[in-house]
């Protein structure tokens, strides 16, 4: 509708002016009537327009909460169909409720008078919040790809991904401070207050904007697909659904069935031949996470080893690789791929520490017989045990 489009343009101008540090009270009075009618879909439109102007997500985060607060009246009154019980979206909302209960329990501990006793109780509680990363991963790897395929405006989800990274960073920061010998009560309260602000803010943005908007564009069969894929992840702070084993098995078996209906098709080379089932079994048996991105920067394939290091979901197939990484690290991805495409480089290697494990991450340029760039292979491997190897082992060493 013309009226809705005009409102979106006015809201876009409001955010531009706010980012230019114009007087917020005067701006509020000028655009107040638009705030009261704003919808979740319009918010995605507005922020996508901002991103299209070259503004980085981290720049938007500076004014994001102020904007959401002025939109609150319109959003809280917005009517939308709540998810069916036991659906993908229902479980995400249940996880949010469970998170808020965890935060309330932490809030009670902050009233503890003795600093040492407070620290002793806080450390396991804050460390427990790391589990909620699974909630964010399900959004990033399942929900976001489905939304991005619906409409361009959902590319604005990079802003929410940045919020996830803020939460991850702040949890780590609070843990490091609590475990330090120099931590003080005032600083503890300040650090945890910042963490609460981020986590509560994400919940609010999900339930006032993201979930209502998703409910209006995602179809029933797509919600079912997302639900199946979600069983590859944990369900933080809520009981794991009983359907888990059945859905996971169905998801994996369907992959094989789609690959080779009758088992008759063969992949032949000068070094031998394999059917599609054998290829899948071989790739998944490798103790390495493999992801293939084609020459157009689209994710085309990933393996499913027994203990995958970095979660992947079928929803990412066909997704632009830019959207598979946090906004703040996309420039590194571009640098690697541009160097591979130009022929300047053929490999890139990194290693990181995750939960006491050393993870080797390697990128390999793929080129055909004519030397043309055909994509990149990402390989990630846990090398903790390999790095600690010494001497030789020539005997089997199995325990009977």
Question: What is the residue-averaged pLDDT?
Answer: 90
Number of helices: 14
State the share of residues found in helices, binned by percent. Answer: 55-70%
Tell me the fraction of residues in β-strands, as a range. 5-15%
Based on DSSP secondary structure assignment, what is the total number of beta strands?
A: 7
Largest sheet: 5 strands, antiparallel
Structural class designation:
alpha+beta
Task: Count the domains.
Answer: 3
Spatial sequence of strands, sheet with the most strands: 4-3-7-6-5
- According to CATH, the homologous superfamily of the largest domain is nmb1532 protein domain like
Q: How many whole angstroms does the radius of gyration measure? A: 24 Å
CA(first)-CA(last) distance: 74 Å
Q: Please provide the ordered H/E string of secondary-structure elements.
A: HHHHHHHHHHHEEHEEHEEEH
CATH topology of the largest domain: Four Helix Bundle (Hemerythrin (Met), subunit A)
Question: Given the C-alpha coordinates, what overall shape results?
Answer: globular
Please write the CATH class name of the largest domain.
Answer: Mainly Alpha
Oligomer: single chain
Domain Hemerythrin-like: 89-214
Protein name: DUF438 domain-containing protein
């Amino acid at each position: 509708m013309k009226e809705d489009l005009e409102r979106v343009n006015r809201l876009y101008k409001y955010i531009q002016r706010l980012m230019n540090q114009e007087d917020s009270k005067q701006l509020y009075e000028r655009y107040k009537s638009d705030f009261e009618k704003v919808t979740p879909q319009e918010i995605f439109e507005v922020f996508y327009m901002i991103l299209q102007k070259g503004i980085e997500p981290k720049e938007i985060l500076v004014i994001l909460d102020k904007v959401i607060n002025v939109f609150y009246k319109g959003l809280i009154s917005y009517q939308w169909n709540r998810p069916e019980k036991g659906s993908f979206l229902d479980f995400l909302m249940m996880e949010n409720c469970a998170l808020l209960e965890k935060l309330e329990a932490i809030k009670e501990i902050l009233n503890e008078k003795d600093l040492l006793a407070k620290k002793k109780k806080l450390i396991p509680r804050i460390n427990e919040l790391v589990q909620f990363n699974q909630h964010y991963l399900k959004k990033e790897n399942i929900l976001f790809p489905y939304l991005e395929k619906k409409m361009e405006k959902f590319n604005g989800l990079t802003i929410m991904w940045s919020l996830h990274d803020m939460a991850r960073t702040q949890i780590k920061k609070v843990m490091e401070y609590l475990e330090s010998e120099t931590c003080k009560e005032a600083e503890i309260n300040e650090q945890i207050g910042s963490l609460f602000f981020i986590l509560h803010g994400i919940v609010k943005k999900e339930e006032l904007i993201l979930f209502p908007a998703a409910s209006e564009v995602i179809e029933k069969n797509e919600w079912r697909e997302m639900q199946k894929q979600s069983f590859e992840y944990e369900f933080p702070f809520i009981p794991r659904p009983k359907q888990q084993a059945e859905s996971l098995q169905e998801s994996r078996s369907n992959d094989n069935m789609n690959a080779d209906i009758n088992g008759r098709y063969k992949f032949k080379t000068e070094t031998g031949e394999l059917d599609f089932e054998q290829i899948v079994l071989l790739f998944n048996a490798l103790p390495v996470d493999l992801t293939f991105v084609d020459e157009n920067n689209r994710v085309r394939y990933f393996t499913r080893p027994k203990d995958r290091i970095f979660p992947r979901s079928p929803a990412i197939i066909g997704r632009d690789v830019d959207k598979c990484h946090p906004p703040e690290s996309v420039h590194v991805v571009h640098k690697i791929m541009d160097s591979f495409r130009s022929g300047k480089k053929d490999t890139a290697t990194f290693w990181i520490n995750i939960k006491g494990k050393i993870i080797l991450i390697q990128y390999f340029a793929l080129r055909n017989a004519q030397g043309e760039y055909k994509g990149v292979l990402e390989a990630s491997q846990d090398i903790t045990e390999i790095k600690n190897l010494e001497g030789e082992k020539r005997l089997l060493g199995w325990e009977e």
